[in-house]
Amino acid sequence: MDERASQHPELTTSGPQSPAQGPGAGNALPLRMYTGLAPWFHLLTAPADYAEEAAFYWNAICSAGSAPPRTLLELGSGGGNNASHMKAHCRLTLVDLSPQMLALSRSLNPECEHLMGDMRSVRLGRLFDAVFIHDAICYMLTEVDLERAIQTAYVHCKPGGVALFAPDVVRETFRVSTDHGGHDGAGRAMRYLEWTWDPDPDDSTYLTDFAYLLRDEKGEVRVEMDRHQLGLFARADWLRIIRIGCGSSAAPGLSHGPSPSCTARSGPESRCFSASSLARPKEIRCPGGSIGSSEMTAWWPVGLI
Ligand SMILES: C[S@@+](CC[C@H](N)C(=O)[O-])C[C@H]1O[C@@H](n2cnc3c(N)ncnc32)[C@H](O)[C@@H]1O
Fold it and tell me: Is residue 94 one of the residues assigned to a domain?
């Protein structure tokens, strides 16, 4: 048995789990985009638009580790948009809570392994060179859930492996905002309005309300609404929770530092965080130039386990 697996017996005992609750389990209502509306997801956000972003994450992971990963686990892999680009580099295992989103991703990425599981609790019984949690980490609404997701990343990471956590925002970069977009597909099309706000600045969540305009093959248009509750944590809380999630003795090298080449995308405040089980933490550098979705985040908490 692998040393890490023997330290974490839960790794060897259970496979992917049936989720007790649906995607974004802390949300009061089921998230329609990840359930009934999942077949529309690629018209909300198209895989082709992720090329630059996925390259950024891949480079961040590679520069954090000693060698490019050969195996990568993505938790909360959604429509498989990042995966559709990352799969050129390594073998991907994609885990999501939503069977509908897994089906969509499978249609885009048939060569990748797809498994249903909750990032807070899934235990696959094997280790990966790298673990990646992109925007799905924002569905962790409490520190406890965030810690559980980080711990899931940790127990699936080979010693010296890399974990990358990329939330859309941290508390310091949160802004009330609106956005809109959408895409035309084969015979049907979608446009959306996204409205982000924070009804209670004292708690650890914010809301994004969506209005979707869905035009079907007959040219008929309907409107659907969706409310997503998302987690909001300060940078210092991220660092503290990553340290706890990795076990304090396993992550002595948690640090953050400037990442000068990020400035084109995220302004002079750019930083990347890293946490390392190795004696010396490594600074994550990101490639220069702007990234497709410049609003995504100015800060990238990064866990290097
Ligand atoms: C915005 S989508 C991710 C899109 C993804 N970044 C991509 O490249 O396509 C968010 C996903 O997180 C999933 N999710 C939410 N809570 C989860 C949890 N506790 N465990 C696993 N997946 C979860 C949802 O089902 C949804 O598919």
Answer: yes
Paired sense of beta strands 71-75 and 128-133, if any: parallel
pTM > 0.70: yes
- Residue 222 pLDDT greater than 60, yes or no: yes
Residue 81 domain flag = yes
Tell me what percent of the residues of the chain surpass a pLDDT of 90.
58
Q: Is residue 286 part of a domain?
A: yes
Predicted confidence (pLDDT) per residue in 80-89, tens digit: 999 999 999 9
Report how far Cα 105 is from the mean position of its chain's Cα atoms. 15
Q: Is 76 in the pocket of ligand 1 (CB under 6 A)?
A: yes
Mutation to probe ligand 1, out of 74, 96, 123 (largest number of atoms < 8 A from CB): 96
How many angstroms from the chain centroid is the CA of residue 134?
Answer: 2
Q: Which atom of ligand 1 is nearest to the CA of 54?
A: 8
Question: Residue 53 falls within a domain, yes or no?
Answer: yes
